[in-house]
Amino acid sequence: MAEHRLGINPGFLAKHTLSLRGVNESNAHAITAELDGLPCVDRVWLNMTKGTLKIAYDASHHNIDEMIAIVEKHGAVIKDNWWSRTKLGWQRQTDKNIKDNAKHEAHCCNKMPPQ
After folding, report:
1. Does the pTM of the predicted model rise above 0.90?
2. Nearest to 11 by CA among 42, 33, 35
3. What residues contact 12, with CB distance under 8 A and at least 6 apart?
4. Number of Cβ atoms within 10 Å of the Cβ of 92
5. Which of 85, 87, 48, 44 is nearest to 62 (CA)?
6. Cα 13 from Cα 10, distance rounded (Å)
7. pLDDT for 49-82, tens place per residue?
8. What secondary structure letter does DSSP report for 105?
9. What's the burial of 94, exposed, middle or buried (CB within 10 Å: 0-12/13-18/19+)?
10. Euclidean distance between CA atoms 43 and 5, whole angstroms
């Protein structure tokens, strides 16, 4: 079983990969340091050769748009192509589902669900 950072609920863990443009030696460290310093972020991997950022975080606390805002703050951008836009839509939906599920209160099996 993999160890997670303190505060990470493995049931709400989202793992996303973003394709980036504009990552260089000067902003790569700033991007990874700021993302990695956020509470409830489990792991951050940046591959400058491929231009990919992999991030794992507790989606009951964060969402992909927060991560993108940090990337853009440091001068890099998400690649603007069909696949990146499609994947980003899926990532947003996944994060929303996780956040909604985190707020859900389970009901007893013997009772009717609340109306």
Report:
1. no
2. 42
3. 58, 59, 60, 98, 101, 102
4. 14
5. 44
6. 5
7. 999 999 999 999 999 999 999 999 999 999 999 9
8. P
9. middle
10. 9
Q: What angle do CA 40, 18, 8 make, to 5 degrees?
A: 15
Give, in order, the Cα–Cα distances in Å from 54 to each of 16, 33, 50, 113: 6, 13, 11, 38
Residues belonging to the chain: 115
Each residue's pLDDT tens digit, 6-54: 777 788 899 999 999 999 988 999 999 999 999 999 999 999 899 999 9
- Residue 46, H or E segment: strand 41-47
Q: Which two tokens mark 26? A: 């000067």
Handedness of CA 72, 77, 80, 82 (dihedral sign): negative
Cα–Cα distance for residue pair 39/23, rounded to 1 Å: 23
Distance CA 16, CA 25 (A): 22
Residue that has been written with the tokens 């589902």 in this structure: 97
